[in-house]
Amino acid sequence: MSEARPGRPSAEEIERLLVGLPPRYTRAEVAAKSGVRQELAERIWRALGFAQRADDAVAFTEADVDALRRVRSMLDGGLLDEQTVIRMARALGQTTARLAQWQAEIMIGTMLPPEPSDDDLATVLDTAQGLLPDFEHVLIHVWRAQLAAAGTRLLAIADVNDEPVPTRVAMAVGFADLVSFTRRSRELGEKELAELVEGFEARASDVVAGHGARLVKTLGDEVLFTAQEPGQAAAIALDLVETEELRIGMAYGPVVPMMGDVFGTTVNLAARLTAIARPGTILVDEALAAGLDGGPYEPHRIRRRPARGLGVVQPYVLRRSSS
């Protein structure tokens, strides 16, 4: 390991300041103290996204012991089985890894000058440490609120499908794609490209949330969203094309929700319609168009098109009602 330069925070200092507790235990010791089998403890760390440690590496803290003890308590009480623990750990690890990386990039990009010194880096770390208690409190509050929102959505879906826990649910799925992103990415510098992508994701997120729907994921120049009703999806799409140069494809039908994502033919159809759509237009499938009957939207039938892997499909161009 190379020595840290004077004034520059070392990896150990960063970990100590942000985690708050010094490492005291090896892999075997943290498993023994928590009462969790070492094999299961190692599976949990891997699911959380942490690198495998050497057998003799002192890398685990009292907080790690406490976390594993809570896992053991859930297992002993029959609240969760081992497979569910691993799945929950993977969901937690992947989500928080992206969150932490994103927040770190925001902090560094906001606070550091173009040519930062070691002292500037230390200042960012001190600021992050001071903000941690408030960040932690807000994080838990937002997570609980999002959990409540997810539960409410699942309850509404279960009512519509008349199943307590539906494995396939009917919903609207939409893709919104930035037009000419490849060309624009070649023309823009790194900072301008990052601002373009972040601005697009921010506006899309605001519009989707404003209509009570869910932004499932972002893919740089594309976002995937879901809505419970066709009219809700139509309102989102029409608002989006007024703020960006986009093409949007949407479909309504059964999807399989899994790992926070959605899968199935309906998702594939929405993606194919997006690829067919002209810049500045919204294409929807026949099922979504039928669900807009009598609303403030006008789906206009156009000629049938071949869609890769799905055969020939009947698209509709979506516009606001002229009345």
Description:
This protein is an alpha+beta fold and about 325 residues long. The protein folds into two domains: about 10-160, no CATH class; about 170-320, Nucleotide cyclase, GGDEF domain (Alpha-Beta Plaits), CATH 3.30.70.1230. It contains eleven helices and ten strands. The protein has helices spanning about 10-20, 25-35, 40-50, 60-75, 80-110, 120-160, 180-185, 190-210, 230-240, 265-275, 285-290; strands at about 170-180, 215-220, 220-225, 245-260, 260-265, 280-285, 295-300, 305, 310-315, 315-320. A hairpin with a 3-residue loop joins strand 8 (about 305) and strand 9. Helix 2 (about 25-35) packs across helix 4 and helix 3 runs parallel beside helix 5 (about 80-110). The termini are far apart. The model has no long low-confidence stretch (mean pLDDT about 85).
Summarize the entry for a quick read.
The protein has about 325 residues and is of the alpha+beta class. It has 11 helices and 10 strands.
Please give a handful of descriptors for the protein shown:
Adenylate/guanylate cyclase domain-containing protein; 54% helix; 11 helices; 323 residues; adenylate cyclase activity; Ad_Cy_reg; 2 domains; Nucleotide_cyclase
How many angstroms does the end-to-end distance come to?
70 Å
Q: Please give the number of β-strands.
A: 10
Considering DSSP H and I runs of 4 or more, what fraction of the residues is helical?
40-55%
Over all CA atoms, what is the radius of gyration? 24 Å
Largest sheet: 8 strands, mixed
Taken from the alpha-carbon principal axes, the silhouette is: globular
The poorly predicted ranges are none
Mean pLDDT: 87
CATH architecture of the largest domain: 2-Layer Sandwich
Protein name: Adenylate/guanylate cyclase domain-containing protein
Organism: [Actinomadura] parvosata subsp. kistnae
Domain Guanylate cyclase: 172-274
InterPro entries: A/G_cyclase (IPR001054), Ad_Cy_reg (IPR032026), Nucleotide_cyclase (IPR029787)
